[in-house]
Amino acid sequence: MSPRGDAAGEGLSAHPSNVPLAIHDLTVAYHRKPVIWDVDLNIPEGKLVGIVGPNGAGKSTLIKACLDLIPKTSGEVAIYGKSYRSQRRMVGYVPQRESVDWDFPVSALDVVAMGTYRQLGWFKPVGRKQREAAMEALDQVGIAHLAKRQIRQLSGGQQQRVFLARALAQDARVYFMDEPFAAVDAATEEAIVRLLQALNERGKTCLVVHHDLATVSSYFDWLVLLNMRVVASGPTRETFTAANLEKTYGGQLNLIDDAVRALRNATD
Amino acid sequence: MRRIDPIRCGCLFALCLIVPALAASGSAEGGAGFHWLDVPLLRNQNTRWVVLSTALLGVASGIIGSFLLLRKRSLMGDALSHATLPGIGIAFGLMVAMGGEGKWLPGLLLGATISGVIGLLVMLAIQRTTRLRDDVSMGLVLSVFFGLGVAVLGVVQRLPNAAGLEDFIYGKPASIVEADFVMTQWLAAVVAVLAVVLFKEFKLLCFDDGFAASQGWPVLALDILLLGMVTAVTVIGLQSVGLILIIAFLITPPAAARFWTNDLLVMMVLSGVIGGISGWLGSAVSALAPRLPAGAVIVVVAAVIFLLSMFLAPRRGVLGRWLRHRRLRRKIGRQHVLRGAYEILEAGHAVPDNRPFSRRELAEKRTWTSRGLERILRRERRTGHLEMLPGSRLRLTEEGFGEAARITRNHRLWEMYLVTHADIAPSHVDRDADMVEHVLEADLVQRLETALRADGVWVPQPRSPHRI
């Protein structure tokens, strides 16, 4: 697809073009109820970034808002200094595994080849070049031998790897991954970690929504703690502290929960 | 994945446009007498256009229905078709009011299209602005618009020349003339070509719209195009199949095709073929038996194809799955019996020898019903694994003994592997091992052996890690 010119707003020009992701004052609300508030973020290039926070903290929402998949209530997002719209070819996306119907009549290779559709453009069918790129991506996640399988016949971990391979086939500079580690087997978890490190070595930036606090410090060198607002963002060594976790998961969360519950009781 | 080049696309286009026309003209000289075969073979002047149009409509709806089904929007098509009725009545009334003839088909179909689209928009508006579930909004639009349509028809039917408007509800293919056929032909050609040209785009849309949007594909525009084609098929189908049954034309062929294949392209083509056959057979039968409305016969033909697919399709079909399940169940039963026997022979003997044992000993090995056990034993005797001796005693044959040793070995290998590699407590191993070992293939057994040998836990016939 031909990018439709530079649609960057005025505020975005302030963002330097070597920053893979800059978010300014982002607020997203569903049905007038804010899910993320006033998020400000600057992610440096070449980092493995973990996005961590409790359920309902808005982690997926943050990613989806960055990718223009849901409307922003206010604020701006810049990918390498420009709006997402004009920088799509630099971005790879791994949605949550449950977001699609795995009984769909396609093979693993078909799904991975979808990553090449944008470069391919309108009307042109998938050709040998795209198939080879898809095979290579499948090989990188270690399931090239399953290329012909219908996706239903894959295990959960293998399905997750298919999604990762599809993002690889996009050949992007910055990757957004929504819970790639959710409910996968140990072998897949290992394969994903290896893949993240390989991407990291090639200078790519990866933003990964993550749930497991135990593995945060070994997987990621940059951490974003999110609970509706950004509690902390920075190198994992400095950010992953008891005080920050307390702020993200503890104390105040209960207060908000109570407030919401009280509100619901009052309005029902 | 297959290459879809413009040449192929052109061929498909030509197929939809030229072949039916050739078939029609080539077989025009049918002779004087009437023969029932003339109808399906298109040799009958009166019914040729009817049969051809309906068959082509089936092709078009089968193709586009595949995407509709996979986009999980099938019922939206139903709401849409019901919502066309008020438009037909209103268009008729307007045309009469303007001094026209009233039953001018293109005008009626335009009215149908407009009110169908309005129905869709109302449905989307309800879904976007309220928290009602999607099925509620579809049901609302479907019933309210249909009711409205019946009311409008009631009013305009008092106007002159209104007889026959209600034919749009159940369809009346006999009214199809050559001009209608040409229209259907173009519709089928356009739908086929769009489905081929935009195959990759529609595939992505139906599989993962979020990813499609992230790549910058215009999801909304593609959805509108898809629903636009569905609208076109519905409106054209009003005349022959009618608005109530057109949905069967959109759902049944792709649902039947899905049973036979795991490849979207094959499914789409197959669905078009099934739709075409249903339309062709259905309209031919209905033309021969005028009491049978075409829409109903078409639905019945499509349903028969669907049922056959559901039962007979090798991989996804009910029968195939049942047979596979039964085979596995029998295999598991057989392995349990043989292993049980081996464990009996093994108890208290350094080297198990093949001696007779009692049924009771075997029955105590597992909780199985006596009838179930008896059935497995009889089957094992037939396959030559087992002999039944007098006095309710049993003995393995030489072949059965070898098989029992092999099965027991696989079971123990797997148990060992679980204990050493998967960190499962020995007391829990038996059940887990039971489930997997029955599907162990030679190659996997070999890998197990290698893994265990590397750990130094290898034994020629591994001992059971738990008390038997």
Features:
heterodimer, A: about 270 residues, alpha/beta, Rossmann fold, six-stranded mixed beta sheet, three-stranded antiparallel beta sheet, 11 helices, 9 strands, disordered N terminus, B: about 475 residues, mainly alpha, ABC transporter involved in vitamin B12 uptake, BtuC, Arc Repressor Mutant, subunit A, 2 domains, elongated
SSE topology sketch:
The complex is a heterodimer of chains A (268) and B (468).
Chain A: E1 21-30, E2 33-43, E3 48-52, H1 59-66, E4 74-78, H2 84-87, E5 91-94, H3 108-113, H4 117-120, H5 128-140, H6 156-169, E6 174-177, H7 186-201, E7 205-210, H8 216-219, E8 222-227, E9 229-235, H9 236-239, H10 242-249, H11 252-267
Parallel strand pairs in A: 3-7, 3-8, 5-6, 6-7
Antiparallel strand pairs in A: 1-2, 1-4, 8-9
Chain B: H1 6-26, H2 45-70, H3 74-82, H4 84-97, H5 105-129, H6 134-156, H7 167-170, H8 178-197, H9 199-207, H10 209-214, H11 219-240, H12 246-258, H13 264-288, H14 294-312, H15 318-346, E1 357-358, H16 359-363, H17 370-382, E2 386-389, E3 393-396, H18 398-421, H19 426-437, H20 442-454
Antiparallel strand pairs in B: 1-3, 2-3
Helix pairs in contact in B: 1-8, 2-8, 2-11, 2-12, 2-13, 3-5, 3-6, 3-12, 4-5, 4-6, 5-6, 5-11, 8-11, 12-13, 12-14, 13-14, 15-17, 15-18, 18-19, 18-20
